[in-house]
Design a protein that fits this description.
By secondary structure, the protein is mainly alpha-helical. It has two domains: 387 residues, MFS general substrate transporter like domains (Growth Hormone, Chain: A, Up-down Bundle), CATH 1.20.1250; 57 residues. It is 77% helix and 1% strand. The protein is built from 15 helices and two strands. It has a two-stranded antiparallel sheet. Helix 5 packs antiparallel against helix 6, helix 6 packs antiparallel against helix 11 and helix 10 runs antiparallel to helix 13. The chain is globular, with a radius of gyration of 21 Å. GO terms for molecular function: transmembrane transporter activity. Keywords: Membrane, Transmembrane, Transmembrane helix. InterPro entries: MFS, MFS_dom, MFS_trans_sf. This is MFS transporter.
């Protein structure tokens, strides 16, 4: 059972509003920061003197910290206080944003982005846990998780646009100063307005599970990121081997503990299986290709980074709107079926975008972006609901951490696979267009397979 500190008389409504507004704002900020380099990579790389391999790490380093820390921070929040971990995450995001803003070279910037990922993990995992503690199951929770899911789409839409505009006005470092201030304000407001919530029966620190899981996922994401510069490098193979050993050790540790960080028995729950598998497919088949699409529009269609970000905002903006409206769907419709419908719409939108060529107009992509955006929003809303409702009430942040770990590991793999396929035939506009077409087709097929899987898993 989850306990929630009782607010003073007359402040219950304000406390409930804060329990939605602050996690939503934190998710918006985290996703804006996650996608900010998409529109400013050239300026950032030039300012830091980064080479081709450095550019890969500039874009992907935040994913390493994010994926590695989501489950750990969610579990710690359930046991030691969600507001506490949320506030620590906000402070860490502020400090790491300052490090990125003042970084003289690639090394410090990449380190700062990794810490930003860990801090963002704390905000994302605890945010859904705070919402679950404040809103009991029913229409109000469905609305609250829909709002949280909508922030994913809005953050992806606004991040590249905001960073591009700030870069034009004051240089690429400006975004990181803005993120630092916003994070500091967010943490201060959280300490003053949020009630504390935690499990009534803390499980204690599962140090072996925490270490093996975090290091295993970190090694896997690092291997995927570095592998984009050459999959047969000894370092990449060593990281893949280390990831396999560590994740196997994590499974063995959790199977033997009486109070594990992640109860492996949860995978026998259809709703939990839907939450994790749906998030993994979303990362693989949706985030992967969409993260690459803005770059393709610049290199193939000749659009500026700002215009490319605005075109991509058709998809992410509609994702925001669709997630907000998901609460209006009949309550009798199972979340798993709606998740499958969202993935099917994402696949249909990707099929509609096939046929990109150097002489295409950007309008050619709009129908597919519209359909895929609606599907992505519906899927995000259902994944947020499943994340907290598929686990015991006192493990809501852990459920969010598991869900989002799958999402961002999938996204890391998706980006790497899309990049490899898209550039496999060369880096000229025609070759890149053909490669992107193949990558889009593969993504659509994976999304369709995910929709079929979601339809096959029956919730109980």
């Amino acid at each position: 059972m989850t306990t929630l500190a009782t607010p003073r008389a007359g402040r219950h409504a304000a406390g409930t509003a804060a329990a939605l507004a602050l996690p939503a704002a934190a998710t918006l900020l985290a996703l804006m920061n996650y996608t900010a380099p998409m529109a400013t990579l050239t300026e950032t790389a030039h300012g830091l003197g980064a080479g081709p391999t450095g550019r890969i790490w500039l874009m992907s380093s935040i994913s390493l910290g994010l994926a590695a820390a989501l489950l750990a921070t969610g579990s710690l929040a359930d046991d030691h206080g969600r507001r506490r971990v949320f506030a620590i995450g906000a402070a860490a995001l502020a400090a790491s944003s300052v490090a990125c803003a003042v970084a003289p070279g690639t090394g410090l910037f990449v380190a700062g982005r990794i810490v930003q990922g860990v801090a963002s993990a704390a905000l994302l995992a605890t945010g859904l846990g705070i919402i679950a503690a404040a809103f009991p199951p029913g229409p109000r929770r469905a609305h609250a998780t829909g709002v949280w899911g909508a922030m994913l789409g809005l953050g992806i839409a606004l991040g590249p646009i905001a960073s591009a505009e700030l870069t034009s006005a004051a240089g690429w470092r400006a975004w990181y100063w803005v993120a630092a201030v916003a994070s500091a304000v967010l943490g201060a407001v959280a300490v003053r307005t949020l009630g504390e919530s935690r499990s009534e029966r803390p499980r204690g620190l599962d140090l072996p599970g925490l270490v093996t899981m975090s290091l295993g996922v970190a090694a896997l994401v690092a291997a995927i990121t570095w592998g984009r510069a050459g999959w047969t490098r000894p370092g990449v193979l060593a990281l893949l081997g280390a990831a396999a050993v560590l994740l196997a050790a994590f499974t063995a540790v959790e199977a033997r503990r009486t109070e594990p960080m992640l109860d492996l028995g949860l995978f026998r729950r259809p709703a939990f299986l839907l939450s994790v598998s749906g998030a993994l497919v979303t990362g693989l088949a949706v985030i992967g290709i969409m993260s690459y699409l803005a770059t393709v529009m610049t290199l193939v269609l000749g659009l500026s980074p700002v215009v490319s970000a605005l075109v991509l905002a058709i998809w992410s903006g509609l994702s925001f709107v669709a997630a907000l409206q998901a609460r209006r769907l009949p309550a009798r419709l199972p979340a798993g079926r709606l998740l499958g419908a969202g993935l099917a719409l994402s696949a249909a939108g990707e099929f509609a975008m096939l046929g990109l060529a150097p002489d295409s107009h950007w309008w050619r992509l709009v129908p597919g972006l519209v359909v895929s955006g609606v599907g992505s929003g519906l899927a995000n809303a259902m994944l947020a609901r499943l994340a907290v409702e598929s686990v015991p009430a006192d493990r809501a942040s852990m459920g969010s951490g598991a869900n989002n770990t799958a999402r961002y590991v999938g996204a890391s793999i998706g980006v790497a696979v899309v990049g490899a396929i898209a550039t496999g035939s060369g880096d000229g506009p025609s070759a890149l267009a053909h490669g992107t077409d193949v990558a889009m087709l593969v993504s659509a097929v994976v999304a369709l397979a995910g929709a079929a899987l979601a339809a096959a898993i029956r919730e109980r």
